[in-house]
Amino acid sequence: MRLPTWLAHHLAALRALLVFTVLLGLAYPLALVAVGRLPGLADRADGSLVRAGGTPVGSALIGQAFTDADGNPVPRYFQSRPSVAGDGYDPTATAASNLGPESVVDTIATDPEQSTPSLLTQVCARSKAVADLDGVDGRRPYCTADGVGAVLAVFRADGLTGPITRVVSVNQAAPAPPFLATYQGVPVEPAEPGVDYLAAGGIVTPIRGDAPAEPAVPADAVTASGSGLDPHISPAYAEIQVARVARERGADPAAVRRLVDQHTAGRSLGFLGAPAVNVLALNLALDERFPAR
């Protein structure tokens, strides 16, 4: 008995669905899992786990924070690059902040929970935090001493020209005093929460300040990577942490510096990228060589 055309088409589609479900939904994933268990590939398939005493302590490919329960850096460890992936180094939320060089004005809301720092203020705050932790010069161009973007909203009588009538430090709200007392003879006011000074006609005016052209705190210490998962830091960022780590562990700084050198990888193929230090591997080596007192 010949089946109706519409029924034959439906049965053919059902057979195709079942075949492709078996092939692509079962056989193909299982084949990839089997390949991932081959010697030499198993570690990579499991996320390049790093173990200490047989216990997984992290990944060689994903960064992690070395902080205490309150989120404060643990001084005896080298600190990682900042991350904005989720709550930090979250592989399920890998992303950058999407903030660019024009992000220099903070949003200061009446509710502090609704306030959002600009990229400039994030960089300034991180630089100050690193300086406080490692005892180095944290000054950066266009940053205030208290770690926010040094940006003014300058109001002029005729919009873009004319005499200055008002100046506001847009990233510093009262009661914090403005980083400048006056600008071209006009007193500088602190910002009022909830006020959009740019919409009101203020001209954004960053102030460079007296920071050195080459800041002591390197760029990777104050900016997150594009993925937010970078497990490496630059040798320059590792170098400014050596003295602190050696002091906390009662070790010779020269010996700690040698460990840093041993865990510094060169450029890929000799010319791609930049030298980098794997923070987790370095900290594990420190725990083995110089256990915390």
Mind sketching the topology for me?
Blueprint: H1 5-36, H2 42-45, E1 49-52, E2 55-59, H3 119-134, E3 151-158, E4 161-173, E5 182-183, E6 186-191, E7 203-206, E8 232-233, H4 235-249, H5 253-262, E9 264-265, E10 276-278, H6 279-289
- Sketch the major β-sheet: 5 strands, mixed
Mean pLDDT: 90
Helical residue percent? 25-40%
- Based on helices, strands and strand pairing, what is the structural class? alpha+beta
Please tell me what the overall shape is.
Answer: flat
Note the beta-strand portion. 15-25%
Uncertain parts: none
End-to-end gap: 87 Å
Secondary structure tally, helices: 6
Count the strands? 10
Strand order of the largest sheet: 5-6-4-3-7
Spell the H/E element sequence: HHEEHEEEEEEHHEEH
Whole-angstrom Rg: 27 Å
Tell me about this structure.
With 293 residues, the protein is α+β, with helices and mostly antiparallel strands. The chain is 30% helix and 17% strand. It is built from six helices and ten strands. Helix 4 packs across helix 5. The longest helix has 32 residues. The N and C termini lie far apart (87 Å). The model has no long low-confidence stretch (mean pLDDT 90).
